[in-house]
Structure formats: C-alpha cells, structure tokens
Input
Amino acid sequence: MRHPLRRIIGLLSLGLLAILAYRSFVIVDETEYVLVTEFGRTVDVLGDDPGESGLHAKRPWRSSIAVDRRLRVFDPPPREMITGDKRNLEVSSYVAWRVSDPRRFVAAAGTLDSAEARLNERVSAALSDALGRRDLASLASTDPAVWRLGALTDEVLAAVAPAARDELGVDVLDVRLRRFNHPVEVRPAVFDLIRGERKQVAERLRAEGESQYQILKGQAERDRDAILAKADAEADRIRGRGDAEATRLLNEAHARDPKFYEFVRTLETYRAILDDRATLVLSSASPLLRLLTRGPSEDQSREESTPPADKVASPAGGRP
Output
C-alpha cells in the first residue's frame, strides 16, 4: 500500500513542480508587450525595448497579459453624414493605430476590439463635425484651389490622436477617407442629375465646336474662292495671250498664201462633215463642192506651177 501511495505523491509533486516552472517563466514575442500582473495590479511591463524579447522569469502567482504592439488598420463601418451644404453622404474611413502605453491600454480598453470600438466613436464624431463645416465641392473637386480633403483628414487626426493617447494609451497615426458616396436611396436621382448636367455640358461643347467649325469653314471657303479667282484670272490672261499669238500666226500664214489657206480650210471642212453616215444635198454650183467637182482653181494651179521670179533660170551668160 505504501509503494503506490509514494508513487502518487511523487507524480503529484512532479506535476506541481511543472506547473510552478510553467508559471515562473513568460515568453515575450518581439511583436508584443507583456504586462505582468499581481492580483490584478500591473507590476511590470516587458517588451518596451525590442531587445527584451525572449524568455523572462516571474513569480509563479503572477499572471501575464500579451498586447499586440504592431501597427493596425481599422475600417469603421460606413456612416451617413451631412456636409455644410446639406448634402447627405455615406462615408467610409480607415484608421491606422497602435498601442503605445500598454498599462493605460489594458486599464482603459482591455482588448483590441474594445479599443477599436471606442476609436470608431471618436473618429465618426470628428468626421461628422469636420464635414458639417465643409461643402461637397471641397471633397470631390478637381480644382486644387477648392479641394480640401487633405486638410479635412488632418483636422480629424488632430482632433482624435491626443485624446486617444491620453485616454486609451494608443497612437492614432493616420485617418483617411476610403470612400464617400450618396446614400443608396438617393443615388438614382443623383445619377440622373449628373447625367443631365453632363448632357448640357456636352451640348454646349458641341454648339461651340459647330460654331468654330462654321467659322473655319467660311474662312477656308473665302480663301479657296480668292485662290480660284486669282487662278482663273491668270488662266484668262495666259489664254488671251495664247489666243492672240495663235491669231497672229494664223494671220501671217493666211497673208503668205491665201489660196492655199482656203484650200486647207476646205479640206478640214470636208473632214468634219463627211463620214460614212453623212448625206449632203447641195447645188452643183455650191462653193463647198467646187473643189470636188473642179479641183483646185486655175489661178491656184497656175500659181503653184509658176516658180517665183527670183528662182527663174536666167540665160547663160546673161541677166534675167
């Protein structure tokens, strides 16, 4: 009986020693703060210095609470807010924060979810106040002189960060708007209004473009007419000089041999009016048929057969 009892006592002692050993050490991760508490009171904070990560000893009856020290990004749920010009907006934001004072954090919030819930209330209140003093154009304008979204988020950050540090022991590093839009109920009407405004702008731009097109077209047509008129005048001058030169050459040719000129013109007339389909009914005394019925005139034949006076051969040894 004594042997089994000793074994049980030995096993219980080993178990107790294992529990004491487990309770006497704490592992500090480099991404965490570890608060050592004694009966609910914080007696030590491990992890303030990244070099403190590793295994640390503590008294067995003391407890440890790990707090994440890394940067966290919290997305509060969208909330409906009113701008300074009475526009309803559904605003979504995000908050970048981390624990800076683990003692105060554990005493004020206790958990990360509780801290984010309280941050959500503070950020929403600051956003609502900042939006209520600004028009919608300062958030959504493309004009740098009007756009003030950066100033709005800086103002919200300045309003939230000191209180969060003093009350919750957290550093709020940044607050930004992720999205803002009209509420779902009024979006169709807003989109219709935007389409109507864009349509008016498009019609105005088209009218301005059409006016500019007509101006440019009229100027181009005037330039074209001026160029064509100048070209036509130059062509008329060139054509007139050509006609005058042709008339002069024709008159010179006619003056040299009028009979031959008449003969050639008669042949050209025949070529123009006589073909396989032509039928002419003319009097035999018609001047037009004289060349066909009588041939070249006797005067023309005599002139063609008589050599010029300066080419008649003179008698040998004598003068003409």
